[in-house]
Amino acid sequence: MGIERLSTNLICRRAGITPPALYQYFPNKYAILHELGRRMMWRQNEHLTPWATVQTMQLPEAEFAASVAQVFLSTLHVTEDTAGGVWVMRALRAVPSLQHVRMASHEAVTNLVLAAFQDSYPAVDVAQARLTMRLAIDALYAAQELLVDDPQQDPEAVARVMSEMVAAQFVKLRAS
Question: Does the pLDDT at position 89 exceed 70?
Fold first, then answer.
């Protein structure tokens, strides 16, 4: 089912509630998707908080890459384990009025990782570090979308390749 086929009536039928009950809390399907997206991304971001530490940022490149792969797969599992998570993920990218949910989450994660990186490497060029981290987060999210859209891809292989790419950029940033 595509986002265009989703309706508040369908949501009400699946939830076992009446449209007036739903409209007390959500004016339309986009408001529901907004809240579902916000909650899913919050659960994904919970996996990053214990990861984004000074100790993680200082790991040798191979260990850092392995840690990125692990957190990547854990956030992928959040999407897969969330009811309608795949469709919510797609809606957050496709629907202009929902894109700010994804963008706000990515900015929050960027700030989280940047803070740990700056604590580890105080002399880092902050603008370059922010750009590197933001691109890494968006690339990792795109890799998750690839896995959702192309189930033939091996999640472990995608996680490994993406994490090695990210780790290489972080190591380069450390040296600058």
Answer: yes
pLDDT > 80? residue 5: no
69 vs 62: CA distance, rounded Å: 11
1: pLDDT strictly greater than 60 = no
Phi and psi torsions of 7, nearest 5°: -135, 160
Element (H, E) at 162: helix 155-175
Q: Which CATH architecture has domain 29-175?
A: Orthogonal Bundle (1.10)
144 with 65: CB under 8 angstroms? Answer: no
Does position 114 have pLDDT exceeding 90, yes or no? yes
| Contacts by residues 21-25 (CB-CB < 8 Å, ≥ 24 positions apart) | none
Domain ranges of the chain: 29-175
What's the one-letter identity of residue 1?
A: M
Half-sphere exposure of 75 (CA within 13 A, CB side): 29
**For residues 147-152, average pLDDT:** 93
Q: 3-class DSSP state for residue 11?
A: helix
What's the CA gap between 104 and 159, in Å, rounded? 23
Residues sharing a CB contact under 8 Å with residue 114, sequence separation 6 or more, in sequence order? 126, 129, 130, 133
